[in-house]
Write a structure and sequence with these properties.
By secondary structure, the protein is mainly beta. The radius of gyration is 18 Å and the shape is globular. A hairpin with an 8-residue loop joins strand 6 and strand 7 (about 125). It has one domain (about 30-200): Electron Transport, Fmn-binding Protein, Chain A (Pnp Oxidase, Chain A, Roll), CATH 2.30.110. Strands 2-1-5-8-9-4-3 form a seven-stranded antiparallel beta sheet, with helices on one face. The protein has helices at about 20-25, 70-80, 90-95, 105-110; strands at about 30-35, 45-50, 50-55, 60-65, 80-85, 115, 125, 130-145, 150-165, 170, 175, 185, 190-195. Helices cover about 10% and strands about 35% of the residues. The mean pLDDT is about 95. This is Flavin reductase (DIM6/NTAB) family NADH-FMN oxidoreductase RutF. GO terms for molecular function: FMN binding; oxidoreductase activity, acting on the CH-NH group of donors, NAD or NADP as acceptor. It comes from Bradyrhizobium macuxiense. InterPro entries: Flavin_Rdtase-like_dom, Split_barrel_FMN-bd.
């Protein structure tokens, strides 16, 4: 591959394409379907495109919010949140919770979902989701560029303190990722991908 085979650009100067390829290149990405509660007791449920796991011990997950959204404000105030696995069966429900609505609107009701109280946190999980993580916030970090300039984005990290897994997806003591048919972000706005067992393969590390 030579230089003329490559589309090169510096992000600060624009990408020169019809759509910014950044999101499509960093794909697939898990969906951060985050439930939180504000100090007044109002519950929020929203999906986030930038989400992942970052540490085994303690188990830490995190999501990044562009602009200071309700989820981040709630979590800063209460120190708790719940992540819920978005699956193919729940795709339309998850998408419904992406609507921009007033702070006191219950997205669980809006999407036709059921709240189940957390065991260790005062935030409900999505009953219909096969996997949920109850989390205690560990850090909220405003992101910044290499030049130190602050970005309008906040990374919220939380320690997983309780895990709920549908036993139907545990076989011989092993959680079967593909059986849950999780959906992930696969590119631009609106692009998703369903993970199926037949699309998974195993590679053993050399060491």
């Amino acid at each position: 591959m030579t230089a003329k085979d490559l589309h090169f650009y510096e992000p600060k100067n624009g990408h020169g394409l019809k759509h910014d390829p950044f999101n499509a290149i960093v794909a697939p990405r898990p969906i951060g379907w985050i439930a939180s509660r504000d100090k007044g007791g109002n519950v929020n449920l929203a999906p986030y495109s930038f989400f992942n796991a970052f540490c085994y011990v303690p188990p830490i997950i995190g999501f990044s919010s562009t602009n200071w959204k309700d989820s981040v404000a709630n979590i800063q105030d209460t120190g708790e949140f719940v992540w819920n696995l978005a699956t193919m069966d729940l795709a339309k429900h998850m998408n419904a919770t992406a609507a921009h609505v007033a702070r006191d609107v219950d997205e669980f009701k809006l999407a036709g979902l059921t709240q189940v109280p957390g065991k260790l946190v005062n935030v409900p999980r999505v009953a219909e989701s096969p996997v949920s993580f109850e989390c205690k916030v560990s850090q909220i970090i405003q992101l910044q560029g290499a030049d130190g300039k602050k970005a309008e984005a906040w990374l919220t990290l939380g320690e997983v303190v309780a895990v709920h897994i549908d036993k139907a997806f545990i076989k011989d003591g092993v959680y079967q990722t593909g059986l849950a048919h999780p959906i992930v972000r696969a590119g631009r706005r609106g692009d998703y991908f369903e993970i199926k067992p037949e699309n998974m393969f195993e590679m053993i590390r050399p060491d």
